[in-house]
Amino acid sequence: MSSPSVEALIAAFREALSQATDPAAVEEVRRNHCGKKSPVKDLLRNLRDLPPEERPEFAKSINEAQALMEAEVDAAAQVAEAKALDARLAAEWLDLS
Predict the structure, then answer these.
(1) Which of 2, 19, 8, 1 is nearest to 76 (CA)?
(2) What is the DSSP string of 9-69?
(3) For 45-96, what is each residue's pLDDT tens digit?
(4) CA-closest candidate to residue 10, choices 80, 93, 58, 68
(5) pLDDT (tens digit, 9 = 90+) per residue, 24-48?
(6) 35 to 2, 32, 38, 69, 71: CA distances (angstroms)
(7) Which among 4, 22, 11, 5 has a CA at the least distance from the CA of 69?
(8) What is the spatial distance between Cα 59 and Cα 3, in angstroms, rounded to a whole number?
């Protein structure tokens, strides 16, 4: 992941993910950064503009970045869902004693 544009995408993704506190926000980050119209997909579409000798390395860095983002968003989604469940259970808890 040596390309500055790929590194910038990862930095922007991590910033957005750090601000996502609930499952809906995490899903929005997933759509914005890993979806069909995401900057990652734009970079993949722009591969044809690169010289042929640079394409494999750049494509590899994009694919690694995408896999990293998907893994991090999956982990964040699990944490957000667990926090939401804990909050809901705490709100619904009744002391029957």
Answers:
(1) 19
(2) HHHHHHHHHHH--SHHHHHHHHHHHHSTTSHHHHHHHGGGGS-TTTHHHHHHHHHHHHHHH
(3) 888 888 999 999 999 999 999 999 999 999 999 999 998 888 888 888 777 7
(4) 68
(5) 999 999 999 988 889 999 888 888 8
(6) 22, 6, 5, 11, 14
(7) 11
(8) 10
Give the model's pLDDT for residue 4: 64
What is the Cα–Cα distance from 22 to 79, expressed in whole angstroms?
Answer: 9
Ramachandran region, residue 49 (left: φ > 0; alpha: ψ -120 to 50; beta: rest) = alpha
Residue whose structure tokens are 């922007």:
12
Cβ(63)–Cβ(71) under 8 Å? no
To 5 degrees, how large is the angle CA 42–CA 45–CA 49? 115
Give the span between the Cα atoms of 85 and 21, in whole angstroms.
Answer: 13
